[in-house]
Amino acid sequence: RVIDCHAHCNLREHVRFINDRSLRHMLSTFPYYSLEDSIRIKRLMYGGKDVRSLRFAKTFRGIDHRAANEYLLRQSPAQDRVAVYGLPEDVPYTIEAMHDPRCSAVKMYWSYIEPPAEKIYQFFPTAVLEEAQAHGIPIILHLPKMIVRCIDDFQRLVADFPRLRIVLAHLGLSKLPVPGLEEAFAAAAKHPNVLMDTSLNPSPEVMLLALRAFGTDRIMFGSDEPLHLIRSVAFKHPVHGERIATEYPYHWIDPAEHAEYKHLAAGAIHAHWQSVGAIKSALARIPGPNVERMKQRIFYENAREYFDF
Q1: Which of 220, 225, 269, 299 has the most CB atoms around it within 10 Å of its CB?
Q2: Any residues with CB less than 8 A from the CB of 254 and at least 6 apart, and which?
C-alpha cells in the first residue's frame, strides 16, 4: 500500500491562461492532468499496488482554482483525499473550502501572487493559518525560497503558530546538499508538528539528512505527480546555483544552457524513480534491522495518520 501525499490534478477547462513567468517554469509542462490520467499512470508505475493520493490543483495563477477544488472534492476516488487550494485574495472562500468533509489540508503557493512572494505571510494569510491551527487542518508549505535561505521566516511562522500542523514540501526545496542544510533541517525538526514530503527530490544525501533530522515517522512520500514524469537531473550551475538539466529541449529550458548541460541528463530516468531510489538509498544507510517498518511509515502510515485517510 502506498499513499502519495503530493499529487496535482485539474482539468484542461480549468486552465484560463499561462503567463510568461509560469511558461518559463517546468510546471507548465503539464498545465492540466485529469483524474483519469492519474489513475492510468498509477497503474503503469506502481505495479498493481493499492495507491491512494492527496490531490490538489496545479499551482500557477491562471488556474480556475475554485472550479478545480470543486472537481477534486466531488470527483476524486473515494479512497483519496484533497488539499484545497487557497486563494490569498479570498480568505472567506478559502476558510469555507477548508471545512469541506473531503478536505484534509490546505495548499497555498508563493508564486500565485504578483510579484511572487518572498515571505510566507505574503501568500499564507494569518486568518487562514489561525483557522488551520484552531481546527487541526495541516498546511502544505512550498517555501518561497530554499529552506537554508528562509529558515528565519519559517521559524517566525512556527513561533507565531506553535500548534499549526505543517508539511514542508520537496524536503525544503534543496535537490542538492548545500551549506547549512543540516542545520536548517535540525532547526525545523525541533517543532514536533512539522513533517516533510519527499516530492521530486532526487538526492540520497538530502534524503538522508532529512531522515536523520526528522526520523522516519515524520517523512512521507510524495511524487509531485505529474512532474514526476519529467526526466531530469539536478546540477550546480557556476552562476545560477542549483538548476536542472534535461536531454529533451523543453520550452522552459534556456537554449544556451541546454546546449551546454544537456549531456548531464543523457539517459536520465523519470524523476519518480529518482526520488524513490533516493529514499531506498538513504534508508540503506540508516542503522537498524527494521527497514520494512521504515518504508511502511514513509510510504503509507505517516500520510494515513496525518491527513486522516
Answers
A1: 220
A2: none
Q: How confident is the model at residue 48 (pLDDT cuts 50, 70, 90)?
A: confident
Report the chain's mean pLDDT, rounded to a whole number: 97
Which residues, 6+ apart, have CB-to-CB distance to 158 below 8 Å?
164, 166, 191, 193, 194
Helices (H), the chain: 20-23, 35-45, 65-75, 91-98, 120-123, 126-135, 147-160, 181-189, 204-214, 255-261, 271-284, 291-296, 302-306
The closest of 123, 11, 5, 29 to 70, measured between CA atoms, is 11
Q: Which one is predicted more confidently, 13 or 48? A: 13
Q: Quick one: average pLDDT of 145-174?
A: 98
Tell me, what DSSP letter sits at residue 183? H
Residue holding cell 499551482?
59
Q: What is the dihedral of CA 64, 67, 72, 75, to 10 degrees?
A: -140
Residue 298 DSSP one-character state: I
The counts of H helices and E strands in the chain are 13, 10
Average pLDDT over residues 264-274: 97
